[in-house]
């Protein structure tokens, strides 16, 4: 199977400021890749913010670990799983197809598996802790953009 990375992503979107934020955490036997940030302006919903989080994690992971041969993507966005699961018959809108091609362009000939994971479940396991960390990162960034928005008015 080769070297693979397991990635976790989360995102938030604020309709009030039209801002999306994302956070990701990737773990391989060689180390970790993690980060967070504000989505570009064309990201206009929580769905696209989740997509952007996956894209940024794949990008950062490949930069740090170019030898990766595959990705296990854990996301709480079932819509994204449906786009990549081979047995789902979806006919996505043009913008969604563009985002999917962007991720596939990074992945190239590596394998990708998507798993839907529930977010915000109680319990002290690592996945829940990661989800809480990503949520906090996203919300801190959203608060910054809200403050900037209020100050510029």
Fold topology:
Layout: E1 4-14, E2 19-28, E3 31-38, H1 46-64, E4 70-75, H2 78-84, H3 94-107, E5 111-116, H4 126-152
Parallel strand pairs: 1-4, 4-5
Antiparallel strand pairs: 1-2, 2-3
Helix pairs in contact: 1-3
Question: Can you tell me about this structure?
Answer:
Helix 1 (46-64) runs parallel beside helix 3. This protein has a single domain, classed as Nucleotidyltransferase, domain 5 (2-Layer Sandwich). The chain has helices spanning 46-64, 78-84, 94-107, 126-152; strands at residues 4-14, 19-28, 31-38, 70-75, 111-116. The chain is globular. The protein is an alpha/beta fold. It is 44% helix and 27% strand. The chain starts with a strand and ends with a helix.
What portion of residues is helical? Answer: 40-55%
Beta percentage is: 25-35%
How would you name the CATH homologous superfamily?
Ribonuclease H-like superfamily/Ribonuclease H
**Which structural class best describes the helix and strand composition?**
alpha/beta
Mean pLDDT: 87
In the CATH scheme, what's the topology name?
A: Nucleotidyltransferase, domain 5
Q: Radius of gyration from the CA trace? A: 16 Å
Quick structural gist:
This protein has 153 residues and is of the alpha/beta class.
Q: What are its keywords?
A:
single chain, 153 residues, alpha/beta, Nucleotidyltransferase, domain 5, 5-stranded mixed sheet, 4 helices, 44% helix, 27% strand
């Amino acid at each position: 199977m080769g070297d693979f990375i397991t990635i976790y992503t989360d995102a938030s979107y604020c309709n009030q400021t039209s801002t999306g934020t994302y956070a990701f955490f990737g773990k391989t036997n060689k180390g970790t890749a993690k980060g967070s940030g504000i989505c570009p302006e064309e990201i206009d919903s929580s769905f696209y913010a989740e997509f952007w989080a996956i894209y940024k994690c794949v990008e950062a992971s490949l930069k740090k670990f170019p030898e990766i041969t595959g990705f296990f993507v854990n996301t709480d966005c079932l819509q994204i799983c449906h786009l990549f699961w081979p047995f789902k018959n979806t006919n996505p809108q043009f913008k969604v197809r563009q985002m999917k091609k962007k991720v596939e362009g990074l992945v190239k000939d590596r394998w990708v598996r998507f798993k839907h994971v529930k977010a915000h479940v109680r319990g002290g396991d690592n996945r829940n802790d990661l989800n809480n960390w990503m949520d906090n990162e996203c919300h801190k960034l959203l608060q910054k953009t809200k403050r900037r928005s209020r100050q510029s008015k």
